[in-house]
Amino acid sequence: MERRSLVESGDTRLDAPERAAGAREHGTGPAEPAPPAPPGYEGTPPEAGSARWWAQRAASAGRRRPRPGGLSSQRIVEAALDVLRDGGIDGLTLRCVAERLDTTIASLYRHIASRDELIALIADHVMGEIRLDRTGRGWRADIEALMRDFRRISLDQPLPPSARSRTGYGPNMLRVVDAALGLFLEAGLTADQAGYATITMLELMASDAILRVHRPQSSGGPTGSDGFGELLDGLPADQLTALRAAGGSYISANADDVFDHSMAIFLDGVASRVPRSG
Q1: Which domains are assigned to the chain?
Q2: Among 124-128, 237-241, 242-246, the range of highest mean pLDDT
Q3: What is the pTM of this model?
Q4: What are the residues whose beta carbons fall under 8 Å from the beta carbon of 62, sequence distance 6 or more?
């Protein structure tokens, strides 16, 4: 499985003064001056996780010579994941990460400029676990396998959906996008169709992550729809007639079943655009 380390993606920031630590720890303070931007990227500092931000990190990678066994973006992200698993997103601060590494916040600022940058690195890091193995059963089975493994990784990662970027430009996320585009192109879609299909796939995965917050993973258990029948009974009988007749699945479907049906509808739509041979 190919996977670029976060060290290979570069480190873009210089040491920050300790007096700015409190603000920048939460992503609100001023950023340190960025290194020279590649041609066409001059201007305001890029947003963490944006394509421009990743481009600047990649451009700076060759200028750094990390010490063997020294602090690195990879070690920082791994420590941050431990902090997330222990205390959740609210407990993720640069101070806690620094303590986990037995170092100072100022040392972290040689590698990341803010909490937002750390979250962007974490979000891409976990995408490196997605398997891109071929099934040998054609493009549809390969896309389904990719989507299921994408979902597995999303379920396991400690970042909540609200902290993830819908569009990722890090090396691990681009690896997934490239694989999906390649499968759709192999299926016979045009470049534009493959692009739209990949975007739709990613939107579906993002929606699934949000849905899991509000629906149980499997049947049973309390949900926000408890008491819905009582709610309908309190309305005039001639209102919401379709929901009364066929709304059972809409109210009670679990997240796993919704994902399976959504994926099938999506893949059926893609298949309808694949040219028929002969």
Answers
A1: 18-127 (1.10.10.60), 139-223+235-271 (1.10.357.10)
A2: 124-128
A3: 0.77
A4: 10
